[in-house]
Write a structure and sequence with these properties.
CATH architecture of the largest domain: 3-Layer(aba) Sandwich
Helix content: 40-55%
Largest sheet: 7 strands, mixed
Strand order of the largest sheet: 6-2-1-7-8-10-9
Order of helices and strands: HHHHHEHEHEHHEEHEEHEEE
Number of helices: 11
Number of domains: 2
CATH class of the largest domain: Alpha Beta
Strand content: 15-25%
Distance between the termini: 59 Å
Radius of gyration: 20 Å
Number of strands: 10
Structural class: alpha/beta
CATH superfamily of the largest domain: Vaccinia Virus protein VP39
C-alpha cells in the first residue's frame, strides 16, 4: 500500500530526461545512458516524496526554476553510487600485504613515511581497511598519511564518523578485525580511534585539479571511472599519475583499465590482481 504522501507517478518525458542527463553530468561527471530511467526513478523518488512532487518532470521544473543549493546537492548526492565494503577485491589487498607494501616498507625504511589516497572513499570502508592492514603489519609507529575523498559530502560525514551497521561489518570484514578494531555501540559498530585518526576525509570532485595533492605511494581509484565518459577518464588518469611518487601504484576496480586511456602507467600483475605502476 503506497504512502499517502507518495507521488502519483515518477515517469519522465524525453525533454526532462535529457535535462537530468545534462544536469547530472555537469554537476558530477556521471554519464547516464539512454536506458537509465529506472535508475533515476529509484534514486530520485525519495526526493519526490520529501518535496511532495508528483513526478520527475516536476522535479526537473523545480531544478530549472530555483537556485536552491540544497536541492541541487540532494539530487547529485542521490545519483552518486556508494557500493563498497571492507576488503573489497580481496586479491588486491592480499597483493598489498604480501608483495607491494613490503616493497614500499623496504624503500622507505629510512624515513618511515607512507602516503595513500582513497580517491572514491564512499563510506570509508576502503581507507579504513588499508589502515587496519597497516596496523596488522606493525606500522603503527610509522608516519602514515591516508586521505579519503568523495564527491558526496554525506558520504564523507559518514566516513569520518566511522560507525557501521551490522550488515556492513558482515561484508568482507574478518571477525578478528571486528573484535580488535571495533566497539559495539547499541546495534552498530564504532571503529576505534587508533584507526579513525589515521584517515583524513575531504569532499572532492575528481574532475578538479589534483596538483596540490600528494605525492602518494598508492592511490585507490576503484570502481568509479566506469561512470565517466572517455575524455573525463583520460583527464582523471593523467591527473592521478601526477599525484604518485615515481614507482608508486594506482589501483583500479576489477573491470577497469588504463588501456587506450593513459600511457603513463605500467601494468603489473601480482597473482590475479592488476596494479598500475608509475614509471
Amino acid at each position: 500500500m503506497p504512502l499517502s504522501n507518495a507521488p502519483a507517478a515518477v515517469g519522465i518525458n524525453p525533454e526532462s530526461y535529457r535535462f537530468l542527463q545534462d544536469y547530472v553530468y555537469r554537476e558530477s561527471g556521471i554519464v547516464l545512458d539512454g536506458d537509465k530511467q529506472y535508475l533515476l526513478e529509484a534514486r530520485l523518488t525519495p526526493i519526490l516524496r520529501q518535496r511532495q512532487l508528483a513526478s520527475l518532470n516536476d522535479l526537473c521544473a523545480l531544478l530549472q526554476a530555483t537556485a536552491e543549493a540544497p536541492l541541487k546537492r540532494q539530487v547529485v548526492e542521490a545519483m552518486t553510487t556508494h557500493e563498497t565494503f571492507f576488503f573489497r577485491e580481496a586479491a588486491q589487498f592480499d597483493a598489498l600485504r604480501t608483495t607491494v607494501l613490503p616493497e614500499l616498507i623496504q624503500l622507505h625504511q629510512d624515513t618511515q613515511k607512507l602516503a595513500f589516497w582513497s580517491a572514491a572513499s564512499s563510506f570509508g570502508q576502503e581507507a579504513y581497511t588499508l589502515a587496519m592492514l597497516l596496523l596488522e603489519m606493525g606500522l603503527g609507529g610509522w608516519k602514515i598519511q591516508i586521505l579519503g575523498t568523495d564527491l558526496s559530502t554525506q558520504a564523507v560525514e559518514r566516513a569520518r564518523a566511522g560507525k557501521y551497521l551490522q550488515i556492513e561489518v558482515n561484508r568482507g570484514l574478518p571477525a578478528a578485525y571486528l573484535v580488535k578494531y571495533f566497539t559495539r555501540v547499541g546495534l552498530d559498530w564504532q571503529l576505534k580511534d587508533e584507526v579513525r585518526k589515521m584517515v583524513r576525509y575531504e569532499a572532492m570532485d575528481l574532475r578538479q585539479s589534483m596538483r596540490t595533492l600528494g605525492p602518494f605511494d598508492i592511490v585507490f581509484c576503484r570502481n568509479v571511472l566506469i561512470y565517466f565518459d572517455i575524455e573525463s577518464k583520460k583527464k582523471i588518469l593523467t591527473e592521478l599519475r601526477g599525484t604518485l611518487f615515481r614507482g608508486g601504484y594506482l589501483l583500479l576496480g576489477g573491470s577497469e583499465t588504463t588501456l587506450n586511456l593513459a600511457n603513463e602507467f605500467e601494468r603489473k600483475m601480482f597473482g590475479p590482481a592488476a596494479f598500475y605502476r608509475a614509471p
